[in-house]
Amino acid sequence: MSRTTRSWAGTLVLLSLLIIGAIALGGCSGQPAAAPAAEPTTVTQAATAVPPTEVPPTNTTVPPTQPPAPSPTLAPTDTPAPEPTATATEAPVAAPVVIDSTNCITCHTSEETLQKLAVEEEPAESLSEGEG
Amino acid sequence: MPPLEAWQKVFVSQGKFVDSDPHAKTTTCIQCHGGVSGADTMEEAHKGVVSDPTQDQESVGKLCGACHAEIAAAQVKSLHYDSHGYDTIVSQRLGDAPESHQAWEAAQANHCSSCHTTCGQCHVSQPTSVGGGLVSGHQFKATQAFTRTCTGCHGSRVNAEYTGQNEGIPADVHWSEGGMPCFKCHTGDALHGMTAADGAANGKTERYDGKPLPSCLDCHPNAEPGKGEIQQHNIHGGKLACQVCHSVENKSCYSCHVQTSDDGTPFFKIEPSVMTFKIGLNPKQSEDRPWEYVTLRHVPIDPDNFAFYGEDVLANFDALPTWKYATPHNIQRNTPQTKTCDSCHGNADLFLSEGDLKPYEIEANKGLIPTALPPKIGQ
User: Is B257 helix (H, G, I), strand (E, B) or coil?
Assistant: First the structure.
């Protein structure tokens, strides 16, 4: 092998390694790499909620594209409450409670059981006189 | 009413109810009747059980009304649901004093308020007032046998007349010839009090309030004067109620006195009934009931009916007659009245007169006694 040929071969091997490395870094998926998570930002505390000197709660972080959460207020507003709409986010309705009546049916459909248990009422002596 | 043994009264049919009745598919025993699910003893299982869950207005709306809203809404205002029909009549005779009204309220609570029916006591069981008991294994029936429901309450007078149980008096032709049960004439709408426009509650204050329901003309339209070929209908039809010619002796009652025993048990004492046939002037003459002459029967009122509850309770006794507009249930095509013209014309025995009245009721009935009898015709 001549010196020139060896030099070309070395260059090819180096290029191949670079390509393989690039593919490996790209995940072989053809999809774009995940964007880095947005830096969380803290909502500016509303003046009516807490004093400005107080440390904001950490659980009020929202993505930068979302509008800030409305500040809580104790005063009534004129804004009408939104009409309830049936959406996928609506809380599921509790399933109706089914009261088991198996025992009732078991006894009350059994002539034998009823004949054993049913008690004839003593007819009360009527003080009434004449046709009713 | 056929007697039922204790076990028969509560027997539920697997085939007729549990497996096939739509009501068994839509609710459970406990949802309607209460009680305790999964109990180990009969006593515990029956805690809080209500045998007839349609006894109060709220339950009727919640249970029956869930599917039968219009019927349930009308039924609780109907004459069948409570005793407001009695109240309409008796309260007219009460005195002005508050004690008079208080006495009637006490008497009504003891003796009258239990006389009503519920959804269940017509469609599922026999009426409670005659011992109750499931009729067909708890199967809900739109119409039960009238002998297990209607005649439980309307037995001693209407049933006896209709089915011919009064000695020597024939049964009503609609029964003896037609075999017609009550429901053939008395429709569901009428029984539920739904005869106002569009099936709304009719608001009847007593049985003969408003138009006749049913009316004979509903099935016999040609009997209306001028619409048929029967001469007597064309001559008399506008002046005489149908029953004047086509009913026979029926039951009159006298003096039902009510009181309670020392332990508070209500009871009554009534004089023996009398079979009568009396024609008189129409005490309810109106556009709806225009006839001049109607049949009358004596109702068991007298000035001392409620004397146990107070003095002079019926201070306004003369406000209503003691012989009442009547529609006897013993209709015949041919009766003693239809034999000849003079069966009625000039026949004083058929018409109410002072001779039929006790001294204390003469004033109350003055408006019913014809001033002159229809003259004899000689035929």
Answer: strand
Asked whether residue B375 is domain-assigned, the answer is no
Closest-approach residue (CA) in chain B for A96: B27
B98-107 residue pLDDT tens: 999 999 999 9
Query: Average pLDDT in the B152-181 region?
Result: 96
Residue A130 to residue B268, Cβ atoms within 8 A: yes
What pLDDT band is residue A12 in, cutting at 50, 70 and 90? low
Give A44 to chain B, closest Cα distance, Å. 53
Nearest-by-Cβ selection for A120 from B6, B156, B261: B6
B330 and B250 Cβ atoms separated by less than 8 Å: yes
- Separation between Cα atoms, residue B357 and residue B183, nearest integer Å: 36
Furthest CA-CA distance within chain A: 140
Evaluate whether residue B225 is within a structural domain: yes
Host domain of residue B222: 6-368
User: What total of structural domains would you count in chain B?
Assistant: 1
Residue B197: the pLDDT is 85
> Nearest CA of chain B to the CA of A84: how many Å?
25
In tens, the pLDDT along A40-55 reads 333 333 333 333 333 3
Q: Nearest CB to B6: which of A98, A111, A118?
A: A118
Q: Is residue B374 part of a domain?
A: no
Instruction: Return the number of CB contacts < 8 Å for A and B.
Output: 83
Reply yes or no: is the peptide bond before residue A96 cis, omega within 30 of 0.
no
Provide ipTM, 2 decimals. Answer: 0.86
A96 contact B CB<8A: no
Q: Which class for A48: exposed (0-12), middle (13-18), buried (19 or more C-beta within 10 A)?
A: exposed
Report pTM: 0.78
Nearest C-alpha of chain A: how many angstroms from B193? Answer: 25
- Shortest Cα distance from A117 to chain B (angstroms)? 8
Nearest to B73 by CA among B187, B198, B183, B206: B198
A105 interfaces chain B, CB cutoff of 8 Å: yes
Beta bridge partners of B266: B260
Q: Is B376 part of a structural domain of the chain?
A: no
| Cα–Cα distance for residue pair B100/B210, rounded to 1 Å | 29
pLDDT band, very low/low/confident/very high, at B43 (cuts 50, 70, 90): very high
- A97 in contact with chain B, both atoms CB, cutoff 8 A: no
**Cross-chain Cβ contact B5/A120 below 8 Å:** yes
The token duo for B273 is 């009934």
What is the model's pLDDT at position A96?
Answer: 57
Asked whether residue B204 carries a pLDDT value surpassing 70, the answer given is yes
A53-94 confidence digits (pLDDT tens): 333 333 333 343 444 443 333 434 444 444 544 444 455 566
CB < 8 Å to B124, chain A:
none
pLDDT attached to residue A38: 39
Say whether A98 and B28 touch across the interface (CB within 8 A): yes
Give me the pLDDT at residue B40, please. Answer: 92
